[in-house]
Amino acid sequence: MSAPGRSASSRLARKRLAGRRALLATLMLLVAVASAFPLLWMVLSSLKTPAETMQVPPVWIPHTPTLEAYENVSGVINVGRSMWNSLVIASITTAGILVTSMMAGYAFAKHHFPGRSLLFSVLIATMFLPPIVTLIPLYRLVGSIGLNASLAGIIVPNLANAFGIPDAPVHSRRARRSDRRSTDGWSVGTPDPVQDRRAERGAGNRGTGAVCLRLSLE
Predict the structure, then answer these.
(1) How far apart are CA 112 and CA 105, in angstroms?
(2) Is residue 45 a contact partner of residue 53, using CB atoms and an 8 Å limit?
(3) What confidence score (pLDDT) does residue 52 get?
(4) Is 177 helix (H, G, I), strand (E, B) or coil?
(5) Which of 92, 153, 169, 206 is most deeply packed, by most CB within 10 A?
(6) Distances, alpha carbon 9 to alpha carbons 16, 18, 19, 23, 107, in Å
(7) For the chain, how far is it from start to end, CA to CA, in angstroms?
(8) Per-block average pLDDT, block size 10, for the chain (218 residues)?
(9) CB atoms within 10 A of CB 174
């Protein structure tokens, strides 16, 4: 093919690539707008008067924005207390999930025990359970240990879940075939030879797990 022909083919390929990227960007923008619309509608509705809220066809932009709804809510509930409760629950549950997920990920990725694959499969299967299925059992469980009507009753059931456990076991074979660090998972990123040398020197699981965690976070 001559130089002008190659140049024309190259320009055509670039145009096609630019067209695909533009189409992808447009689709992503549409999805983002559709996802953000309910939140935007909720905020706009909170600034409307009761008459505008019930008007048909709906009013998109409030004609006379008002904070009356927020004043009414602040008179019904303690907003400051609610914000503090949310902060406490979110902080403690996040820390708890980090700790339990790291321990579970290390156990599944670096230890071989009977039933590991089955247990991991069951654990992953729990991710497909809708929250409403576990609502009543969790309520009865929390009540049986005397944590009803308390922050602990919300925090304790959420200290561990399958969503927080890394996918380390899925990539463990790849990490075992290489002495180099991997970025596939937090615990398999530590080469097995490092763990083996630690074990030979008499380090227990606690010390070895600490080394794996430190290396994976570097």
Answers:
(1) 12
(2) yes
(3) 86
(4) coil
(5) 169
(6) 11, 14, 15, 21, 54
(7) 51
(8) 63 80 93 93 89 85 86 85 93 89 78 83 85 89 89 90 65 44 44 51 52 51
(9) 12
